[in-house]
Structure formats: structure tokens, C-alpha cells
Amino acid sequence: xxxxxxxxxxxxxxxxxxxxxxxxxxxxxxxxxxxxxxxxxxxxxxxxxxxxxxxxxxxxxxxxxxxxxxxxxxxxxxxxxxxxxxxxxxxxxxxxxxxxxxxxxxxxxxxxxxxxxxxxxxxxxxxxxxxxxxxxxxxxxxxxxxxxxxxxxxxxxxxxxxxxxxxxxxxxxxxxxxxxxxxxxxxxxxxxxxxxxxxxxxxxxxxxxxxxxxxxxxxxxxxxxxxxxxxxxxxxxxxxxxxxxxxxxxxxxxxxxxxxxxxxxxxxxxxxxxxxxxxxxxxxxxxxxxxxxxxxxxxxxxxxxxxxxxxxxxxxxxxxxxxxxxxxxxxxxxxxxxxxxxxxxxxxxxxxxxxxxxxxxxxxxxxxxxxxxxxxxxxxxxxxxxxxxxxxxxxxxxxxxxxxxxxxxxxxxxxxxxxxxxxxxxxxxxxxxxxxxxxxxxxxxxxxxxxxxxxxxxxxx
Length: 461
Fold this sequence. Notes:
Elements: H1 19-33, H2 36-47, H3 53-67, H4 69-75, H5 77-81, H6 85-88, H7 90-93, H8 97-127, H9 134-149, H10 153-178, H11 192-211, H12 230-257, H13 263-271, H14 273-279, H15 285-298, H16 300-316, H17 319-323, H18 326-343, H19 348-377, H20 398-407, H21 409-414, H22 436-458
């Protein structure tokens, strides 16, 4: 078991950089995201927002390219600081306000574990012809993920390294099997205003998926030396994220596009998302079911880093929390997402639509504060990375907290969800469109610099 929790990895404890180690950055992110939970987000373009194949595909590409920038930027702080992401957040948000972002990040990590377990359970149930219930499938996925994550960083990296190969092969088999049934001529539904609104909402949702890794971006690279190139860390992380997300989401769009023209796929879709995935292997017989099991088990490569990050985030909440070993919090997080997955197994698309967008709102506000603090106020001052628990040396965080809370005015005005449509969002199209990300970014970007300037003038830190 990895004994280290959130304690800083000192420079002398770091491992010497090698070409293989740098390449592993990209491999880890690629392996963690060529998974069914991300593929299923591609379903939402044609099936939820009623967008055509071309519209959905273009949105997937550009949204994933933009959304991968955030976590790639946050990843550079791992080697630089030797601290985990939510510990690094203390240098930008302040010691106490960083607890708020930590709680929100725990929700993200556990939430993605929940989604992955539901999908894995659905696939395993579909493979068995219903003889294995979705609940049993959920339990199987959850236990495997817990068993890997509880041992820590090294087994996790080894698992991600070798998991990528068979999972990629299976996805290419899926392309060969299901590709002839894709419907590239599928058109978007609605008038011009409605289609534009749906494009914007789907873009925001797709962007939120890679963006969600920003809260854990540096967690996996704290053992790299301080002199590791920032550009290299950014490039490797960006490559792994963007390639994987574009790949699987385009595959998801393709599968969803064939539902309207293929009665078998339509029946599978109305059974579950996992059944639709398995329908893509129709014609391969028993080998197709084996491929379905491989895809289901491949979800573990996405849940394991989420579970690892969530366990570390629990320790960031305070000294008492830090004193409890990481593997205990790993178990707690696993139990939470297991219970949530069992409870929400019949509401997957609603979870996707509401949870993903909601999590993207706070992350874009958080990254805006981090970037502006870094580029405007810390460009020439640097950081004392050893002072991560010294409240007197860390920012008080008044400016960051006010900006973070006021920044939420943007999502409140601009979000388009089942349970709330903001007054600005309702003005776009016939029903509305999700503008929450963009308004949150704009408001935060404008108000944080002057507030931080006043804070530094008055308090000095």
C-alpha cells in the first residue's frame, strides 16, 4: 500500500526523468479516457439534443480540444510543486476557501465513478442476457476499481499502461462491426434557432467532460522532478486527453446516429446505454460478448484515477482528515459511488445531462482564478511549495472566494437544466441553451484581478 497521502513529495524523493516516464503521462490520460462513460457522452448529441451526425461530430472535436486545455494546464503544477491538485489550490484560493473546491472535486470524482459503475453494470447485464442484474454488474466493477486504487500510484500507473492496448483494439473492432450501420446523413432536428441552441448546449456539455479532470490534473505527477519541462507536461497531458476524448466520443456519435435507422439498436437503446454499446458488436457472436465484457472492465481505468484523487481530496479537508490513511478514504469513496450507482442506475441520461454541466461550471471559475493569479500576480514572485500547511504564508483568499461565489452568478443566469433554466439561457432558441460556462468565465475573469489587487495592497498576501 502507498503510505503517502497529501504530504509534499520532496525534491530528493522524486524519480529521475526518462523518455518512458514522459510518455507515460500521455498513456495514462489516454488509457483513463477511452472508456464507455466518455463514449456514452457522444450518444447525447443525436439522442438527447437531436443533432445530426456532422453537427455532433464537429462539436465533439472542437469541444474536446478546448476542454482538454484546463487539465493540461493544471497538470504542470504536479512536478513543479510536488503537491496534489487541491493542495496546490491553497496557493490560489487560500487555505480555507480551497476546502470548498476540494469538496466539489470529491463530488466530481465520486460522480464519475458512479456513472462508470452504472454503465459497466448495464453492459455486464446485457452480455449475460439479463441473467446478471445491473446491480451485480455495478458491484463487480466497483470492487475491481477499489482493489486497484487502494494500493496507490505505482500499481495504478502499471495498470493504465497495459490496459490501453486491449481496450484500443476492442474499440477498433467495434468500429469495424458497427461502422457500416452509422448514419452520416443524419440531420439535425428543429428550426434554425433551436438547432443553434442545441449545438451550444452540446458543446458546453462535451467541453465539461475533459475539463472535469482539472481538479486532479497534478495528482499523478508529483513524483516527477522539479525541472520537468512545463511545456512537456502540458503537451503530454493535452495529447492523451484530447486524442482519447475525440476518439471515443466520435464513436459514440456514430453509434447514436444509427439508432433511428436500425430497429435492433433502437430496442437496445431503450433498454440501456450499455445494451446499445453491446448491440454494436452484433454479428460477432460470442466474441462480440467478450468484447463487451472488455469494454465494461475497461471502465476501471477511468474509475481508478478518480477514486485515487477523491481519497487524497478527503485528506485536504483538514489535519484530522489527513491523519486517516489514504486507503481508508479510498474505501469510503468506493462505498459512496457504489451506493449512488445502485440508486441511480435507471436515470443515467439525466445524471449525464445535469451532473456533467453542473461540475463544469465551478471548474471553469476555479481555473480562471488560478490562471489569472499565476499570470498576473505570481509571474515574478513564485511560490513557497513547502508552506502548503502554513496558513500565515498562504493567501487569505478573500478575493478568490468572493470571485468564486460571484462567478456563480454566470451559471445561475445561463444554465439550462431540467430543474432550472436561467433568464439569459431562456432567451436562446425556442427552449433555451446552456451559457453557464461562458458567463461564469466572463464574470470571474473581470472581477478577480481588481479584488486581488486590493487584497494584496491591504493584506500583502
